[in-house]
Design the sequence.
């Protein structure tokens, strides 16, 4: 096994990420500094990064149905439940691929393969992610074109690759981006609030048949398909028909998360409240709206001093 792949398999990062460790001279093989990326590692070799002895770990590729009320982190400062509590405690160190926010549920991968993580999360690969979204009110047909064209939100320019109306207040969306809270913020900007967000697909992998809180290993065929996952050349919004997502939601609920963590996300509106009076636009003054009239007697402009 090549040295860069050995380090990536051990969970030190993607193959490109660990290459920097090698070229910087931070890696020793049998006591000798090695900077050649193609160095072959044998089972009997001793590999160290700094003073840390590195052992190759058994690669793990698993898919988890994240329930609502769990956060995607290994250690939460607010002591909320994390997705790693749903995994076997005797596993080697693994990390989640991408994330779902506290209130969202659905498909998420966990692995110790840095290369696969890079493939699935780097924007250049444009791996598709599909979501079932329930809104607080009926979806206006005119907003479909806005989601497909895209617009700027808090974390950058956001757009959908596919939009399908399942019911009046229920959508199926496809993204190739991974901006933070992208779907919630896009729909909020159009005047909707998301009541439920459920990820049903990443690349070629569907969540079908996986109960809330349950996980399973990916097959070698599925791992290979994920490595080769590329966006299909198809018209925008052409979504492959799926089984009714309502059947997926009939799986038994897991343990309820703490109520204190279930506060819905409400972004701060930037527009002025309706009915707010506009003040005169003579001069800017902090603390008095956007513009306010200057106080005190008017001052005559002074002419520049004459230079003799």
Sequence:
């Amino acid at each position: 096994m090549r040295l860069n792949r050995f380090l990536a398999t051990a969970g030190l990062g993607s193959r490109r990420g660990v290459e920097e460790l090698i070229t910087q001279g931070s890696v020793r093989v049998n006591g000798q500094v090695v900077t050649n990326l193609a160095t072959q590692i044998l089972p009997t070799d001793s590999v160290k990064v700094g003073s840390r002895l590195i052992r190759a770990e058994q690669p793990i590729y698993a898919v988890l149905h994240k329930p609502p009320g769990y956060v995607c982190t290994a250690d939460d400062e607010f002591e909320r439940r994390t997705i790693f509590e749903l995994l076997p405690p005797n596993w080697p160190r693994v990390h989640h691929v991408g994330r779902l926010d506290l209130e969202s549920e659905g498909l998420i991968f966990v692995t110790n393969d840095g290369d696969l993580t890079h493939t699935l999360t780097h924007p250049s690969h444009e791996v598709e992610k599909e979501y079932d979204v329930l809104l607080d009110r009926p979806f206006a047909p005119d907003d479909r074109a806005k989601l497909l064209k895209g617009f700027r939100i808090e974390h950058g320019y956001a757009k959908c690759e596919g939009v399908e109306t399942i019911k009046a207040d229920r959508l199926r969306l496809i993204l190739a981006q991974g901006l933070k809270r992208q779907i919630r913020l896009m729909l909020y900007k159009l005047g909707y609030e998301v009541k439920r967000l459920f990820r049903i697909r990443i690349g070629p992998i569907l969540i079908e048949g996986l109960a809330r809180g349950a996980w399973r290993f990916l097959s070698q065929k599925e791992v290979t398909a994920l490595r080769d996952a590329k966006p299909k050349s198809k018209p925008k919004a052409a979504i492959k028909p799926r089984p009714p997502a309502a059947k997926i939601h009939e799986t038994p609920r897991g343990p309820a998360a703490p109520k204190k963590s279930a506060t819905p996300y409400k972004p701060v509106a930037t527009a002025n409240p309706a009915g707010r009076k506009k003040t005169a636009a003579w001069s800017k003054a902090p603390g008095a709206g956007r513009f306010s009239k200057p106080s005190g007697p008017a001052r005559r402009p002074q002419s520049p001093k004459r230079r003799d």
